[in-house]
Amino acid sequence: MFAPTASDNYKIANSYLSLEDANDILRGQKDFNYWNELAQEAKEALLINSSFAIDGAISHKGKKTDEEQLLKYPRDGEEDVQLAIKIATAILALKVAKNKDDVKSETIGKLSKVYRDSAKESDILIYLNPFKARVVKIFQ
Fold it and tell me: Which residues contact 29 (CB under 8 A, 6 or more apart)?
């Protein structure tokens, strides 16, 4: 997983925040103990997939800071990803991890996810809008 700092190259970033930053953001959440018990690789995969899900779920004003960057933030010459995007990424990762076995569907703002009955823990069907869906792998 590569989550850049303000001085890093965003062309290769695949997550909006580092695992350490996610832990700091989630520390106050009621399900932090569940998150804390997950394997590092699982947490990293959740953060990567949540970053891409956010990219597909919200409209983006302006242009990418670097047109070749993988993710859609930062934008308009900013050097770092907005805190709100980082918080949303961390919370979405926690919700997906915690609810993957208990929920058939869930909505967070414009983003909703629907779990298939036959899905393995590695397949989560994410509906980014009513006309576009993609399967993402949350575990290797």
Answer: 35, 91, 94
